[in-house]
């Protein structure tokens, strides 16, 4: 994959982080919900959530996830990440990602990243299916 394609994927994910949907499994049933991922230039993908949330419990039992970023209003550009979610407990990592958030995490976690309620998930892609427009061919990116 070219560097420009990787930059395009990151741009799609960053621009559409307010229109992202995370799928987990609860037993044999899929569960989808809107999330607001934090995407780094190096393609790291983070999701902040409550430690007691259903998604955290589901990931403890099955770490396989699908995360879809969809351009609004018509879905012209999209990136779908298929991979695994890891629960991050390292406080240094939590503080680093906390600073990257473009939204106010203190609204939900007034005690900051040290809060026992604050949970950080890292989505590690197996592959990413993406397109730059409705007319472009669906492409697949596989990280090294």
Structural write-up:
By secondary structure, the chain is of the alpha+beta class. It has one domain: Pnp Oxidase, Chain A (Roll). Helix content is 22%, strand content 40%. The protein is built from three helices and eight strands, in the order H-E-E-E-E-H-E-E-H-E-E. The chain has helices at residues 3-15, 54-61, 91-100, and strands spanning 20-26, 29-35, 38-39, 45-50, 64-70, 78-88, 118-131, 139-141. Strands 1, 2, 3, 4, 5, 6, 7 and 8 form an eight-stranded antiparallel β-sheet that branches. A hairpin with a 2-residue loop joins strand 1 and strand 2. It starts with a helix and ends with a strand.
* Name of the CATH first level: Mainly Beta
Level-2 CATH architecture: Roll
Which runs of at least 5 residues are low in confidence (pLDDT < 50)? none
Mean model confidence by pLDDT: 95
Shape: globular
Strand content: 35-45%
* H/E series: HEEEEHEEHEE
CATH domain topology: Pnp Oxidase, Chain A
Straight-line N-to-C gap: 10 Å
Instruction: Please name the fourth-level CATH homologous superfamily.
Output: Electron Transport, Fmn-binding Protein, Chain A
Radius of gyration: 15 Å
Number of separate helices: 3
Helical amount: 10-25%
Number of strands: 8
Main sheet characteristics: 8 strands, antiparallel
Structural class: alpha+beta
What is the number of independent domains? Answer: 1
């Amino acid at each position: 994959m070219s560097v420009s394609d990787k930059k395009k994927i990151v741009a799609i994910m960053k621009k559409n982080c307010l229109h992202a949907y995370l799928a987990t499994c609860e037993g044999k049933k899929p569960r989808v919900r809107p999330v607001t991922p934090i995407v780094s230039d190096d393609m790291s993908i983070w999701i902040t959530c409550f430690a007691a949330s259903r998604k955290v419990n589901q990931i403890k039992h099955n770490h396989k996830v699908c995360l879809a970023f969809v351009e609004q209003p018509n879905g012209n550009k999209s990136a779908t990440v298929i991979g695994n979610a890891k629960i991050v407990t390292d406080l240094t990592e939590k503080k680093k990602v906390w600073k990257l958030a473009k939204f106010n995490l203190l609204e939900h976690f007034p005690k900051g990243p040290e809060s026992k309620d604050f949970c950080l998930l890292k989505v590690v892609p197996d592959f990413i299916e993406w397109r730059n427009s409705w007319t472009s061919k669906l492409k697949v990116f596989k990280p090294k």
